[in-house]
Design a protein that fits this description.
Layout (H helix, E strand, L loop, with lengths): L11 H10 L26 H15 L7 E4 L10 H13 L3 E4 L2 H4 L3 E6 L11 E3 L6 E4 L3 E4 L7 E4 L4 H18 L5 H5 L2 H4 L8
Parallel strand pairs: 1-2, 3-5
Antiparallel strand pairs: 3-4, 6-7
Helix pairs in contact: 1-5, 2-3
Length: 206
Amino acid sequence: ELDVKGVPPQMHGPGVSSLAAGRTCGVAPGANLHYVAMPMWKSKSGNDYYIQALERILQLNRAGQAHIRAVSISDGVFASVPRADEWKALLARAEREGVLVITCYTEASGLAYGLLRPLPGGDRDKPEGYALGTYGGELLVPGDGRTFASPLGRGAYSYAPKGGMSGGAPGLVGLAARGFQANARLAPARLRDSPQMGASPAPRGA
């Protein structure tokens, strides 16, 4: 936890965590989840909290206390806030150390992704069951019409007819986690450039 002592549960954390690794709505329900809570509303801090969090993750990996391979950050205003150059250098170091970082700032992630909207009565397990959602991109992730964990308590869920990019990042990280589960030797760049991560069939309405 970074400067959030006494802050009640917020909607963002449970939601994005469940989209990545939730047992019933996550992409990678078999993955271990490490979560860093931070006050994203303190915009004057710039990239400080993100730098602290990612440095801590890399330290845990180097010390053998964790084996984190994919990091999702449901935010994206990194280039226009303080310590942007330091953050960019840290992202490069994370990749060298085998950690894939995906954010809502698609240029930094190297993945121009957007969201899909399920069609009424469509099959959610097939590309033709979707149309373009709230945001476009080369890689499309189910984002609109999603159910996710709620901060109101165990067994509570929320539903969003329209999603945001903050829900796309954990979905992609869940997919990355499954890739690393299948082949632990994969480098982040190899996984990012794979057909499964780098291309998607155009859905109906695209």
